[in-house]
Write a structure and sequence with these properties.
Helices cover about 40% and strands about 20% of the residues. The chain has about 210 residues and is of the alpha/beta class. It is globular and about 70 Å long. The chain starts with 18 loop residues before the first strand and ends in a 10-residue tail after the last helix.
Length: about 210
Amino acid sequence: MKPSSSKVVPLAPAPAPLVIVLSGPSGAGKDAVLSAMKARSLPLAFIVTNTTRPQRPGEVDNMHYHFVSQQEFKRLVDGRELLEHAEVYGHFYGAPKAPVRQALAQGKDVIIKVDVQGAMTIKKNLNGAVLTFLMPPSLEELAQRLKGRNTESLEDLEIRLDTARSEIDRLPHFDYLVMSYQDRIEQAVSDIEAIIRAEKLRVTHREYSL
């Protein structure tokens, strides 16, 4: 008698891909954390945000941001090609929909870096997104980080710190909190990896409609 060749059917469906939003105040270390995640070659689709902000020294177009003109940004907004968009400190930022949609169709997890205002928009428009808040250890250290960038005037620094205080007040709207210490970036990355693992073990998987 031949052994049965019936196909094994899993008891539970495979976890759905995730949309992970990495947010937090300016200077919290979002770029440093993303760089460390890329260095680990994590199987994630890293979405590059469009911005009208001038390119800073050391930044690479299409790596740190897609640097676009005001006219191009308006075209993307009018065509509803952005997942979220906002004006921050006089410049426009927006996360493109197309690469998010493509990655999810391929079954890949997505990570999007946005400011807190953008995270709130994604929470409203994309039910199921995993919102992660990157928190500096103190406002004093955040001020030192911003000063160390040498990219803002003293007046702009005060504006950013005032904004940071109001952004921290939005913490209850997020799903997870990750502490960001300058000498422990790898710990923040490990914490985000733990969040992804936990989300994959959810009984009810998140669903998205773009």
